[in-house]
Task: inverse folding
């Protein structure tokens, strides 16, 4: 199952926790689980790995955890592959500092050290990569709020806004957008996206053909192309997508697809440029790794991560009348204000 936001770890509910916290409440994993994490990173993570930087970070963390026995730790590190000029692999970059730290501390602390090294490894990677336990099942969104969907009609203009894109929200919006409207404003300000299926469904709703997005990862199975079907709603109705500096991930994919196909005018300020696909990778019956596994490309072929979506009309996204202004622009009643061509980047949001 692939997610653009942290997934609900349903696979972890089957078994009780075992030795995941020490007496002080610190998280623990086995060294074996740590090495499974490293293996997953090696096989699935799509960005190049800076092995010396990763090894340096883990050596620093391991030395900190040696707690008064740093000289013994340093002697151990002096005998590692990298210190002896041997070729460094991700597995040795992770395992050797871990074992050096564990070797100078009581055996009971090995799990705490392994967990700290896992956190350090994931912290060296691009994007949000996390380790979750069964008792930390993260909630996606509050389904009681119509899955976050807010509908408003301003005269003949339909305004649809939501802070995320949980399962089913596209179908809820499809039912509303199929009605009569002079224009539609899709408010994605502050929206972080949702599951890959729901992101595709949201863009597909307003497109009758063409590519929605393409994903690429380290493995051939991650090369996926999503195309629009012919079941388009609100065909010919002017469409605006509002974005800001907090529009991220899947919401950026929707905005990019609609912009590239000329289906919508994007208005607001540049988005975050954080569109990556993360996958839930079970480690055992009590824990799972949520890891960036794929890069996402918009229909134009441009990578979204690191670039974001640049609005067609840049307007301060927190302006009080931005929805009315955006509707007037897309209906041709007003031009994009010349003074708004360089809207603030909205970084504080």
Result:
């Amino acid at each position: 199952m692939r997610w653009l936001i942290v997934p609900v770890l349903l696979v972890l509910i089957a078994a009780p926790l075992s030795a995941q916290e020490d007496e002080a409440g610190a998280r623990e994993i086995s060294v074996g689980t740590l090495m499974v994490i490293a293996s997953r990173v090696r096989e699935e993570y799509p960005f190049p790995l800076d092995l010396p930087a990763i090894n340096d970070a883990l050596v620093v963390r391991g030395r900190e955890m040696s707690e008064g026995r740093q000289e013994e730790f340093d002697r151990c590190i002096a005998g590692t592959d990298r210190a002896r000029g041997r070729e460094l692999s991700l597995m040795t970059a992770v395992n050797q500092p871990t074992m050096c730290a564990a070797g100078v501390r009581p055996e009971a602390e090995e799990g705490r050290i392994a967990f700290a090294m896992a956190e350090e490894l994931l912290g060296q990677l691009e994007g949000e990569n996390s380790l979750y336990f069964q008792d930390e099942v993260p909630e996606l969104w509050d389904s009681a709020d119509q899955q976050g969907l807010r509908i408003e009609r301003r005269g003949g203009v339909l305004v649809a806004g939501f802070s995320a894109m949980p399962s089913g929200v596209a179908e809820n919006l499809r039912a509303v957008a199929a009605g009569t409207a002079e224009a539609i404003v899709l408010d994605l300000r502050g929206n972080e996206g949702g599951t890959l299926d729901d992101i595709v469904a949201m863009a597909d709703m307003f497109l009758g053909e063409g590519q929605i997005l393409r994903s690429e990862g380290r493995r051939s199975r991650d090369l996926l192309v999503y195309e629009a079907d012919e079941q388009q709603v609100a065909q010919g109705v002017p469409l605006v997508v509002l974005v800001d500096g907090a529009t991220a991930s899947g919401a950026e994919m929707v905005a990019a697809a609609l912009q590239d196909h000329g289906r919508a005018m994007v208005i607001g300020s540049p988005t975050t440029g954080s569109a990556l696909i993360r996958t839930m990778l079970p480690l055992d019956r009590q824990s799972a790794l949520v890891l960036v596994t794929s890069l996402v490309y918009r229909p134009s072929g441009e990578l979204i991560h690191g670039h974001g979506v640049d609005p067609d009309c840049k307007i301060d996204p927190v302006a009080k009348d931005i929805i009315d202004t955006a509707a007037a622009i897309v209906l041709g009643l007003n031009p994009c204000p010349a003074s708004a061509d360089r809207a603030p980047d909205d970084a504080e949001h």
Q: What stands out?
A: Residues 1-19, 139-147, 340-349 have pLDDT under 50 and may be disordered.
